[in-house]
Design brief:
100 residues; mainly alpha; 61% helix
């Protein structure tokens, strides 16, 4: 990104561009890992190479995008927060649409 492009961007445009660049970089690393894994399977045989990509070549961002379970305390705090919002009237059930 050239400085003139950076200075013409709003904060939101910059954040979107940065996130897109990060996503592109991550996907590029994942494609490279898949290619290396495929080559290793072909050259080394399927018995000598593990079938899981993350064990074959772990990347630092693999854990960031893995689904995580909440611990019990966090679940309780979330339920308390939901109950609080319900009491305040923010979380109301949606009205059923009337067919006219």
């Amino acid at each position: 990104m050239a400085p003139k492009d950076f200075y013409c961007m709003t904060l939101w445009e910059y954040k979107a561009a940065r996130e897109q660049f990060e996503r592109h970089s991550i996907e590029s690393w994942r494609r490279s890992r898949l290619l290396m894994h495929t080559m290793a399977k072909l050259m080394g045989g399927s018995k000598s190479v593990t079938s899981e990509l993350t064990k074959f070549l772990p990347l630092p961002f693999d854990e960031d995008y893995a689904p995580r379970k909440l611990d019990r305390e966090q679940e309780i705090d979330n339920m308390k927060l939901i109950a609080k919002y319900k009491e305040m009237g923010f979380l109301k059930p949606l009205d059923k649409p009337t067919n006219e």
